[in-house]
Amino acid sequence: MPKLKARAQATLRAAKPAAPARRAKPAAPAPAPQPEAVLELPKKRRAVSPVTAPLTFRKPEPERLEGVPLTPEEQARADAKAAKRSYEDSLWAAYHQGESEEARNTLWVHYQSLVRYIAERQKAKLPECVDVMDLVSSGNLGLQDAIQKFDPTMGVRFETYCVPRIRGAMLDSIRACDWVPRLIRNKHHQYERAIRELGSELGREPNDEELAARLELDLERLQKLRRELDVKAQISIEGGASENAEERDLLRLEMLEDRNEREPTRELQREEIRDMALRGLHPNERAVVEQYYFEGRSMKQIGDLLDLSESRICQIHAQVMDVLRKKFRSYADSVSF
């Protein structure tokens, strides 16, 4: 039995078909060649305008190593700074002990140089008509308020605390002298900004519809806004007479009319019209025209002067007007092209 079973298994194994040969896996594709590295050149940067350049602060001095002696200049500078701070601390200690008026005046005099420095900086941004001494006076009010409200226990130097108050007092005094309300100034800045932005985007002057859409207004409110912004400008005659006066202000001053002075060409035209009107008239007619139009007298006064009634003067005046209309009409036709 075991032999028959082994023979049957051998027969079945021989009759079973052979397994197909396995296919070889395709070879992996060769890696794509990497592009050569391109050298990136540094981008050229535009030169920063001094107007739009960011504020630059003085770099802090590097820490000195221990044991390295100071130079004579550095030592003198450090001694002067320490002496100044010690003097200021003594002034503040004397002021806070009794808050006497003498100690406050001493502090006020000590910080006058700081007020003058801030006033000079503000004057450089303002028109010529603004006097630096007016800014100093306004800054002194801010300095006095800062001295009264300063608290040295907060750990802040007085210079850091008082500078914004002094500058703010100067700006408040300038705004108080402005006769145009602050709201109108803000609207004018928004209006001008919208015109500049649309001009840069469109490459031309914007029309009313585009400007109204940018300001989120309708055309009627846009016209009303323009009427509000149409304020009269003030020109300083004293500023135009100074050496540093701007050419724009000088041109405006030249366009101002002086009604006390008589223009020569206007006087010549007036004399020519007068001679033309009086030429060929009767003495009474000439007197009526001359007294009424050139001397400014009334009909009654002319009648008393010529010993005639007022009604007769009116009649003469009506007759002369008919004659003068015909004369000037014919003159206009002769000189017209």
Low-confidence region ranges: 46-57
What's the architecture of the domain at 75-177 in CATH terms? Orthogonal Bundle
Structural class of the helices, strands and pairings?
mainly alpha
What is the CATH homology-level superfamily of the domain at 75-177? RNA polymerase sigma factor, region 2, helix turn helix motif
Helix-strand topology string = HHHHHHHHHHHHHHH
Question: What profile does the largest beta sheet have?
Answer: none
And the CATH topology of the domain at 75-177? Rna Polymerase Sigma Factor, Chain: A
* Helix content class: 55-70%
Query: What would CATH call the class of the domain at 75-177?
Result: Mainly Alpha
Write down the Rg.
47 Å
* Relative strand content: under 5%
> How many beta strands in the DSSP annotation?
0
Which of globular, elongated, flat, extended, rod-shaped describes the shape?
elongated
Distance between the termini: 149 Å
Put simply, the count of helices is 15
Counting copies of identical and different chains, the oligomeric state is single chain
Mean pLDDT: 76
